[in-house]
Amino acid sequence: VQLQASGGGLVQAGGSLRLSCVASGGTFDYYYMGWFRQAPGKEREFVAGISWGGGSTYYEDSARGRFTISRDNAKNTVHLQMNSLKPEDTAVYYCAAGSSLGVFLGKGGYPEAWGQGTQVTVSS
Fold first, then answer.
1. What's the pLDDT at 107?
2. 49 CB-side CA count, 13 A
3. Confidence (pLDDT) at 108
């Protein structure tokens, strides 16, 4: 599967952005989908994940309550709605596809595909 992320940009603190990731070349609803981010000088970190049918979601602590992950299997798309953005949310955001939530949390295996990344910059 190939992933194409979009939707990043420059926003003021307190603002919102909606990231999208479109999948092609695979069976989209076979995959758990996730969003990660990498800030300058830091390691890539998990942000949010969603199960195959969208019934289960999981968030990193700083994202919970502000970010919402969703998916549309008919359009092979996963979204990350980000509200109440903070300067510390500034990073390159990547979407990923995996066989389970565990591969996103480092509990065995690795994501099978990554998107190319989209820059999110939050100004204070």
1. 87
2. 20
3. 81
Cα-Cα-Cα-Cα torsion 60, 109, 81, 5, nearest 10 degrees, comes to 140
Tell me the β-bridge partners of 55: none
pLDDT score of 93: 98
Check residue 109 and give its pLDDT: 86
State how far the Cα of 96 lies from the Cα of 44, in Å rounded to an integer.
Answer: 12
Indicate the SS3 state at residue 28. Answer: helix
How far apart are alpha carbons 38 and 59 in whole angstroms?
16
Q: How far apart are the C-alpha atoms of 23 and 77, rounded to whole Å?
A: 6
Could you give the CA distance from residue 58 to residue 37 in angstroms, rounded to a whole number? Answer: 15
